[in-house]
Write a structure and sequence with these properties.
By secondary structure, this protein is an all-beta fold. Helix content is 0%, strand content 49%. The strands form 3 sheets. Strands 2, 6, 8, 9, 11, 13, 14 and 16 form an 8-stranded antiparallel sheet that branches. Strands 3, 4, 5, 7, 12 and 15 form a 6-stranded mixed sheet that branches. The protein has a two-stranded antiparallel ribbon with strand order 1-10. A hairpin with a 4-residue loop joins strand 8 and strand 9.
Amino acid sequence: MNRQRKTARLVPVALLLLVGALPLACGGGGGVPITPPGINASWTPASMAPGAMTINLGTASTSGASFSVPVQVTGINDFFGAAFRISFDSSSAAFAGYSAAGSAIDDGTATVLINASLGAPGEVLVNATRQQGAGGAYVSGVDIAATELLLTLNFRATQTTQQPNNFTFTNREVQTCNDGTQTCSAVPDVNLTWAGGAMQAR
């Protein structure tokens, strides 16, 4: 894993929330269509071997119409967190919640905030970030070398598809920290790779 823990110092930092305020409870997909019986979902990541400075949707676990997609981080040093939206076609898929278990940013040295909630139809708002310390104490990021988990998003197919249902990142931001200046800031998007994936249901 090669994730290094870092020492807290004094200065307040916070991840800029491009996705807006999110609830603290696990997200759900209330009011979505009932899936007809016999539908089976499959998932294809856009990138099977993500390179450095990448946020991607990895290989999903599937069970019938349900599919759980890991959001992964690769090769980002001093990673403090990310905020983004996942957009997809709501006519054939529905958001069904999320899990923060095993997140790389939750290394036991800082408080973390991990949320995912349904926004507009076909849009999941995600915020996964470490938090500044009590009294504004500086908290640095974590070094992520290999591909590691940020959180898992759960979906289900609601009908069969004729074409792949593409899941893409929008309104996206990553923040990293600088221990020398004890500040955290957004990484220019041109320096990052964002790779989604596609669902099909039969």
